[in-house]
């Protein structure tokens, strides 16, 4: 049996081509939309990954501050060692803490042009400085060397250090109940753990 072949008129052919062209445009639009969504998701995932690192860093520092058996110099060294883990590129980030005439630094610290600092306050007075140095790595997304949330991280850690050192320097009798600061740090650790 012979199939019927029908020749398309010029108008019909033009209409078919117009419809095909419109489908191609629609597909290109959808593809561009999918690419935009994928890029937005990647950016959001990266941002959330940064927040996770910052929260894990805060949690680790809060655990360090809650150790009652730790001596102060070791606690401060642990904090300085932990702090870079909360930044975009921990391997290219170093911390330095000056408090009460003592200097505590990250291993293999490097001074870089990109840094930021927060004052350590004790009893409302400046008692030291916590500084983080970052070796800027060019970001394809144009992210700054130091993110706004990393600045907040540093401020929080500086506050915690000041209050903890203040608390540890208070004289307290053996077996005394934990002070308001120790309870506050333990509650903060529980909140961070729950997030």
What topology does this entry show?
Elements: H1 10-66, H2 72-82, E1 93-99, E2 102-105, E3 114-122, E4 125-134, H3 148-169, H4 180-194
Task: Report on the architecture of this protein.
54% of the residues lie in helices and 15% in strands. The chain has one domain (36-170, 178-194): Beta-Lactamase. The mean pLDDT is 85. The chain is of the alpha+beta class. It has helices at residues 10-66, 72-82, 148-169, 180-194; strands spanning 93-99, 102-105, 114-122, 125-134. The protein is elongated, with a radius of gyration of 29 Å. It contains four helices and four strands, in the order H-H-E-E-E-E-H-H. Helix 1 runs antiparallel to helix 2 (72-82) and helix 1 packs parallel to helix 3 (148-169). Strands 2-1-4-3 form a four-stranded antiparallel beta sheet, with helices on one face.
Q: What is the CATH architecture annotation?
A: 2-Layer Sandwich
H/E element string? HHEEEEHH
Major sheet size, sense and barrel closure: 4 strands, antiparallel
Number of strands: 4
From the 3D structure, determine the CATH topology.
Beta-Lactamase
Strand order of the largest sheet: 2-1-4-3
Strand pairing plus helix content: what structural class? alpha+beta
CATH class: Alpha Beta
Q: What is the helix content?
A: 40-55%
Number of helical elements: 4
Number of domains: 1
Radius of gyration: 29 Å
Q: Strand portion, in percent? A: 15-25%
User: What's the rounded overall pLDDT mean?
Assistant: 85
From the N-terminal CA to the C-terminal CA, the straight-line distance is: 73 Å
Quick summary of this structure?
With 195 residues, this protein is an alpha+beta fold. The protein has one domain: 2-Layer Sandwich (Beta-Lactamase).
């Amino acid at each position: 049996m012979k199939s019927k072949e029908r020749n398309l008129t010029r108008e019909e052919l033009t209409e078919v081509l117009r419809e095909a062209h419109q489908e191609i445009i629609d597909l290109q639009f959808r593809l561009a939309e999918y690419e935009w969504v994928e890029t937005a998701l990647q950016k959001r995932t990266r941002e959330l990954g940064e927040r996770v690192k910052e929260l894990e860093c805060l949690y680790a520092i809060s655990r360090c501050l809650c150790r009652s058996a730790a001596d102060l110099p070791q606690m401060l060294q642990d904090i300085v060692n932990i702090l870079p883990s909360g930044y975009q590129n921990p391997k290219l980030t170093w911390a330095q803490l000056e408090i009460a005439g003592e200097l505590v630094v990250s291993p293999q610290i490097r001074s870089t042009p990109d840094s930021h600092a927060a004052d350590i306050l004790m009893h409302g007075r400046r008692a030291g400085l916590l500084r983080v140095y970052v070796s800027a790595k060019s970001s394809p997304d144009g992210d700054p060397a130091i993110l706004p949330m990393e600045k907040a991280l540093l401020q929080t850690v500086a506050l915690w250090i000041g209050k903890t050192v203040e608390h540890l320097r208070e004289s307290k009798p053996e077996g005394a109940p934990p002070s308001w600061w120790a309870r506050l740090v333990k509650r903060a650790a529980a909140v961070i753990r729950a997030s």
